[in-house]
Design goal:
The complex is a heterodimer of chains A (247) and B (256). Chain A has 247 residues and is of the alpha/beta class. Chain A has a domain at 1-87 and 204-247: 3-Layer(aba) Sandwich (Rossmann fold), CATH 3.40.50. Chain A has helices spanning 48-55, 78-85, 103-114, 120-133, 149-161, 179-196, 207-213, 231-235, 240-246; strands at 8-19, 22-33, 37-41, 63-68, 71-72, 88-91, 167-171, 199-204, 216-221, 224-229. In chain A, helix 3 crosses helix 4 (120-133), helix 4 (120-133) crosses helix 5 (149-161) and helix 5 (149-161) runs parallel beside helix 6. Chain A is globular. Chain B has 256 residues and is mainly alpha-helical. Chain B is elongated. Chain B has helices at residues 3-29, 35-45, 50-74, 81-119, 122-128, 133-171, 176-186, 189-215, 220-252. Classes of the chains: A alpha/beta (247), B mainly alpha (256). The A-B interface holds A 56, 58, 78, 82-83, 85-86, 88, 90, 92, 94, 96-100, 109-110, 113-114, 116, 163 and B 32, 113, 117, 120-122, 124-125, 127-132.
Amino acid sequence: METVKSEAVIVIKDLVKAFGDKIILDGFNLTVEKGSNVVILGKSGSGKSVLIKCIIGLLQPDSGSIHVFNGNIPEMNEDELDQARSKIGFLFQSNALYDSMTIRENLEFPLLRHWVDIEKDEVDRLVNGALEDVDLLHTLDMMPSELSGGMLKRVALARTMILRPEVILYDEPTTGLDPVTSREIENLILKLQKKNHTSSIIISHDMNCVKNTADLVVLLLEGKCYAEGTYAELEQSADQNIKQFFE
Amino acid sequence: MTLIVRLKQFLDETGNVARFTGRFFSAGIKPRYESKELLNQCYNIGYLSFPLVGLTSFIMGLVLTMQLRPSLVDYGVESQLPVMVGLAIVREIGPVITALIFAGKIGSSIGAELGSMKVTEQIDAMTVSGIKPFKYLVATRVMATTLMLPLLTILGDGISLFGAYLGVNIRSVTSIDLFFLQVFKSLDFSDVLPAIIKTLFFGFAVGIVGCYKGFNSSKGTQGVGISANSAVVLSSVLIFIIDLLAVQITELLGLN
């Protein structure tokens, strides 16, 4: 087994993923340090979502390794994968809230399945706490269809956080939201990261979101890590492929 | 599209359904069991289908009796009407019609529900939360359809026979005691048991096809419609195929 640095929570090496003849990821490498926010920047269709779906094990890469907490995701069996997933949160672009359940049930659902012996009072405390964190305690008994896009995103964020993950993967968290709501979501991401000491990979092409949340920006181009650095470093780059994102 | 391509697609699909069925058995056997969700599905699939099954069964019994009477009168065996109707309902028409109604209502609903969960990434959301969606969504629904259809068939048969009793009384007067005495006298263990056993397989087919189509839905909302529709079509065809096999098997076992 490859040696993984103790402070690194995710180490991706030579990741390759193709759909038929179309190569999406072509030897992608990335290291995410504990407590940092890494933003993956890239054009639509560049493979950003494929990358985080490989990290969470929703897609099986063709080759390469994805070490999360020292376990290689592509080599894990179903039970090991479930164990690893309990430490990884995933915020879907579409929110993916269970539309037949109330907000309370949406948040209770993962809790009751992971912690079988958990007391009802403890469940209530965690659900209320998670909703308080996103200022939506009043929506507890509402259905997802009754909430606005920004509220749905915040509830989805609360559901992602409720299992206290150590790593969170955000799939375009501000796409489709107005600038004010986007800013609220960005602030929430930062607030919850600070509170829970999580590490994150954020997929985005919203440059405000990138600027406000990124400790490290990675540009994904033609399936590879084309450039990486802080927002300020990449902003000053003369490379046309990088510049086009900052113009 | 060439015949070979179509044949390949058919074989691929058959293989995928077989694999999906195998997954159901492995997921169903392993703990932890989703008993609360199973009860919830039994309520949704069984209890909430009862009014529709009851109504169609009642009409079926009544119409069947009214249609059969003239033929029996021609042969001078009108008195055998309860026996004829009873045998037809219990052995064949009751189980098959109930299963077809069930496929239309439940097969489409499972296909559409799981299909919509699939395209809105709700199934992926369960997976990434470390919850096994196959166990939670598929195993519970297939178990519920398998358990509920025999119960609905028994209830439907009873209501159908009551409809038949009213049908008999449109043109003549027969007491309810005499009607049911004639029906039950004509029925044998070998008439009832195979008919109920085959409904277990009908229910299983409706559940597994609905879940398979929903779970493998794609192409957005259009895909959800396709899943619901193809779930009904395929499970209805399977009901007839299973019925055909059941008749052959009962004949081989000397139960006919």
